[in-house]
Design brief:
Elements (H helix, E strand, L loop, with lengths): L1 E6 L10 H8 L3 E4 L6 H4 L8 E3 L5 H10 L6 E6 L10 H9 L3 E5 L4 H9 L12 E5 L12 H5 L4 E5 L5 H12 L4 E6 L7 E6 L3 H8 L5 E5 L34
Parallel strand pairs: 1-4, 1-5, 2-3, 2-4, 6-7
Antiparallel strand pairs: 7-10, 8-9, 8-10
The chain binds S-adenosyl-L-homocysteine.
S-adenosyl-L-homocysteine binds next to helix 5 and strand 10.
């Protein structure tokens, strides 16, 4: 048996990779994160294969499914939301498989932040504005190391995307506003790529009130940074060097002498 960790993408069932889908189609056992994985994806699993919703299981119970089936042929499709590498709680499962000599494989997925950027039509790395994307979260039951506190992360004024943090948007804006500037654009994307996706646009000064009014308390990302000015000020950044007519690179000769 091989455990295949599959990123299911942010919600829209078409946003899973072909590789991920092909593994699900020939899975012998399915374990899926019921809270966020779109049930439509499970329809591709062969009829009658056992299905476990990991939302109701603890780590030991999940590992027990791996060990119990280790000597049978086939695939356990372990379906995670978004990409498994981002807040996926996947390392402890991979390490378990490594230690127990159970075969494993990871198939990446489209993360929620990529889907949110796509919904906005927004590049997160604009020349002359920011060339860095910070993915983080506020401390919850899982603490964030002090050296990665929001106060510190904010210092670079990079494009910032916060997972698992929407319930504390008030506190977050209060921390970020003095560093980024209170007029800095802040956008909340709720359930990116799902039919009920919502986008709330504001600034660090006014987004918290809007989010509170909307009733959104989970399944949302907070996006902050000057790159988001492109939403209202097209072409405010420097145009890319890659497509600059004067710029020569390995695949194209430009008009400018260098
Ligand atoms: N591995 C996932 C993240 C899991 S953590 C990924 O790569 O996307 C769960 C958090 O991800 C949620 O609290 C929310 O902040 C975010 N999230 C997951 N799916 C989302 C979606 N469709 N739209 C907005 N945020 C989402």
């Amino acid at each position: 048996m091989k455990v295949v960790f599959i990123g299911a993408g942010p919600g829209d069932p078409e946003l899973i990779t072909l590789k991920g889908l092909n593994r699900i189609k020939r899975a012998d056992i399915i374990i899926y994160a019921g809270s966020l994985v779109n049930p439509e994806i499970l329809q591709y699993a062969p009829a009658g294969v056992p299905r476990y919703d990991s939302a109701g299981m603890n780590y030991k119970e999940i590992c027990r499914v791996y060990t119990k089936n280790r000597n049978t042929k086939g695939i356990i499709a372990r379906i995670h939301t978004g990409d498994p590498s981002i807040y996926g709680a996947v390392q402890e499962q991979i390490d378990f498989c490594r230690r127990e000599h159970i075969l494993w494989e990871v198939i990446p997925g489209v993360s929620a932040f990529q889907s949110a950027a796509a919904a906005l039509g927004q590049e997160l790395t604009l020349p002359g504005v920011s060339q860095t994307v910070v993915l983080s979260r506020i401390s919850g039951r899982t603490p964030v190391p002090e050296r990665e506190s929001l106060e510190r992360l904010a210092q670079s004024r990079s494009s910032l995307i916060l997972f698992l943090s929407i319930s504390q948007i008030d506190t977050i804006c209060a921390i970020l506003a003095p560093v980024y500037g209170k007029k800095t654009v802040c956008i909340v994307v709720y359930r990116a790529s799902w039919p009920d996706q919502k986008i709330i646009r504001g600034t660090l000064e006014n987004i918290a009130a809007q989010v509170e009014g909307s009733g959104i308390t989970r399944q949302a990302l907070i996006m902050v940074g000057d790159v988001l000015r492109a939403q209202e000020a097209p072409f405010f950044y420097e145009l890319s060097r890659l497509y600059d007519p004067g710029f020569t690179h390995g695949r194209r000769k430009g008009t400018r002498q260098s």
